[in-house]
Amino acid sequence: MREQGCSTVSAGEPELLDRLVGLQSVITPERIRQALEATGRVNVRDCRLSHEVMLWVVVAMGLLTHLPIRQVFKHARRLRLGEKTPGRSSLCEARQRLGVEPVRSLHNSVVKPLATPATPGAFYKGLRWMGIDSTVMDVPDSEANVVEFQRPSGGRGDGAFPQVRKASLVELGTHVEVAFAIGGYRDGEQTLARQLWDDIPADSLLTEDRGFFGYDDWKALNSRDVKLLVRLKSDLILQPIRRLSDGSFVAKIYPTSYARAKDRDGIEVRVIEYTLNDPQRTGHGEKHRLMTNLLDAEQFPALELIEGYHQRWEEELVYDEQKTHQDPRRAEKPAQLRSETPDGVRQELYALSLSHFVIRALMFEAARPLKLDPDRLSFTGCFRILQCRLPECDSRSHQSFADWYAALLWELQQEQIPPRRNRINPRVIKRKMSKWRKKRAEHRHQRPLTKCFAESVLIVN
């Protein structure tokens, strides 16, 4: 019996979606097949919407986020006389059959750190700048998503949409999201971050914001010989043991206040305290504290680490690229993802990250011969170029593909942007409270009307 949504194709019909051939410069067909084989998704019969085709379609969804899935399929395949595009329901069912695991497997095998010590801005004294942070994204308001991911809540009641929380490990110099962990709104970012530790490269200098610090986590990462540079909360007690030449000092962190009083299980760390004397800057006059296990003040001066810590903001830009620029139309809408099932949400997040890696990998290749920092190329400009040029790639000969790829990299090189301006934005929002009543539980999932409009009209005499 043939699977629903599948139709037998002739032996000579190419299975690969031919307008996606350009993606093979980053995601090879071998990687696709390996991901399918590793997760047991090998088709036993010819099928128009085979697992291989659908895996390419799901990847394309991350590049064509402004399109519904049927239009994604149209954009991925050149028009053939008499060929009908599969219906939305068939594509959705085929996507469900594919599942999450092949997309996760493909992400794990394809996405990797790109920077070399020669990459401008990616290393500090032989250490690769890496960062861990988290974000939340609205997902469609379906019952399944609410149960799996939960809604935020506050003084005005439950939030409008359920939210998924994502913790990411990012190579800061190239904006590559090396790995990420998915949870619900109420899952702690520290808990999710622990799932990323095995993916931290051995040569990393890992930066984290103050919400990620904990004694047990520091001890575990320190025992793995991970170099750390972390911002601290102001209420953490740190008594100087000795002062260093650059103004930083050595102190100990403890698991409990009792252990501190008894000086038990302490771990030596280096603390850097500083403030800002520019009244225009956010945080002016406040005391900021960084902590590191790089204890040598001569080799790693405090001012260099303070300046370097701000590389962590590159991860915020990764989230901005994915949530805003990769999807500008839906970013204006409340729900930033399209899937109404938890597995669909996870599948879509992996597709979004894979597509982001494709863009960033091409930008890296374009910047490398110019010895240019990859941050100096416009992500939005390069993304639009790839969307525009991808259908032009011709797979009929190796030479035509090579010519297309060389022309693409040249065009990406033209998207250079000037160095960032010395500017600051206040940490405020500009949002007007709505005059309309808040949508509550009783307003959701209304039953269908029993009368048509004309039947419900009552003319008043």
Which key terms come to mind for this protein?
single chain, 461 residues, alpha+beta, 10-stranded mixed sheet, globular, disordered N terminus
Our estimate of the beta-strand percent is: 5-15%
Largest sheet: 10 strands, mixed
Number of strands: 12
Q: What helical percentage do the residues reach?
A: 25-40%
Mean of the pLDDT scores? 89
Rough outline: globular
**Secondary-structure element series:** HHHHHEEHEEEEHEHEEEHEEHHHHHHH
Radius of gyration, taken over Cα atoms and rounded to an integer in Å: 26 Å
Any low-confidence stretches, pLDDT <50, length ≥5? Answer: 1-15
Report on the architecture of this protein:
It is built from 16 helices and 12 strands. It has 461 residues and is an alpha+beta fold. It has a domain of 93 residues. The strands form 2 sheets. Strands 1, 2, 5, 6, 7, 8, 9, 10, 11 and 12 form a 10-stranded mixed β-sheet that branches.
Layout of strands and helices, then pairs:
Blueprint: H1 29-38, H2 51-63, H3 69-76, H4 88-98, H5 101-110, E1 123-124, E2 127-138, H6 143-149, E3 153-154, E4 157-158, E5 163-171, E6 176-184, H7 189-194, E7 204-208, H8 215-223, E8 227-231, E9 242-243, E10 249-253, H9 257-262, E11 267-274, E12 288-292, H10 302-309, H11 313-325, H12 328-331, H13 342-367, H14 379-389, H15 398-413, H16 453-456
Parallel strand pairs: 2-7, 7-8
Antiparallel strand pairs: 1-2, 2-5, 3-4, 5-6, 8-12, 9-10, 10-11, 11-12
Helix pairs in contact: 1-5, 2-4, 2-13, 5-13, 13-15
